[in-house]
Amino acid sequence: MVAVVDEQGCCVFVNAVLESVIGLSRRMLAHCPLSDWFKEPLALQEALGAVERNEFATRRFEAELRRTGVGGAESLHVHVIVSQTEHPYRGLLVEMLEIEQQARQEREERVMGQAQVTKELIRNLAHEIKNPLGGIRGAAQLLAMELPSPELTEYTEVIIHEADRLQTLVDRLLAPHRKPHVVSDVNIHEVCERVRSLVLAEHPKGLSVVRDYDTSLPEFRGDREQLIQAVLNIVHNACQALSERIVQGDGQIVLRTRAARQVTLGKQRYRLALELHIQDNGPGIPEALRERIFYPLVSGREGGSGLGLTLAQTFVQQHQGTIECSSEPGRTDFKIVIPLP
């Protein structure tokens, strides 16, 4: 929500979001004091005065924004940023962020920064492991050729087998950095259908994969194979969580697409974005794991590599998108948001 006010604090410009929130057109808001819509107008007036006098470049505070609702009782808790602006209005810029939205933006920025640090750490660690790993495997092969007793080669076979297993793990860690980003026109529903066919081929009985598509969503530029892999990793995790329900015959995964408007991802505002929800009716993610599920090598099942969701997050972030999860018993929902042209 954005407004530009003059030296007296009267609105010179308001954007469509602020119009919608307050419930009045910009024509009705024009030349009216913006402070009229604050429950405590003094805080805004003081901030405007301080920035106007150049005492501060920016002032921030929290406030209650009044809205035209039933009885005029509705209000919105916002974080207000007052700063100077010049062309074209030569007034003061007032930005109002819904507290929940601000918290979400800060969380997204924190997650993206954390993912970048983790990615660099994992890549460096993988390279450090890979170099001596080849030497260990080669030495074990040479040793096996020199051993006089066939029974002793069992030990070298264990070394070779474990070295191969670690090599596979390292290759998976490095996979997102090795493959080039192949950009083409992507239809998100073609991605979903590909994943759906793969999963149903693997689980022909006991699992239903429900489509709930908004077919009006446009194509966008992206890496189709990366997005297929990201969605497939999430769906595979859902299938593993649904193992008992699949045996009972009532496992369900829902693939839902929707359009989202005026979405902020990181610090950038997008007019339109797609939302892809991957929802299952499994037991839910244990509370102890919910904050760590996108960390590498964190797995909720025995024998899991803990890389599926990490790679999914990496692929989505390479499309300037975000991925988040909400979970409770009987319902887990992964939401992927990707900006659209």
TrEMBL record:
What this protein catalyses is:
ATP + protein L-histidine = ADP + protein N-phospho-L-histidine
The record ties this protein, via Gene3D superfamilies, to:
1.10.287.130, Histidine kinase-like ATPase, C-terminal domain (3.30.565.10)
State the source organism's domain of life.
Answer: Bacteria
Enzyme's top EC category: transferase
Give residue ranges for domain Histidine kinase: 124-341
Family annotation (Pfam families): HATPase_c, HisKA
Which keywords has UniProt assigned to this entry?
ATP-binding, Kinase, Nucleotide-binding, Phosphoprotein, Transferase, Two-component regulatory system
Task: Spell out the protein name for this chain.
Answer: histidine kinase
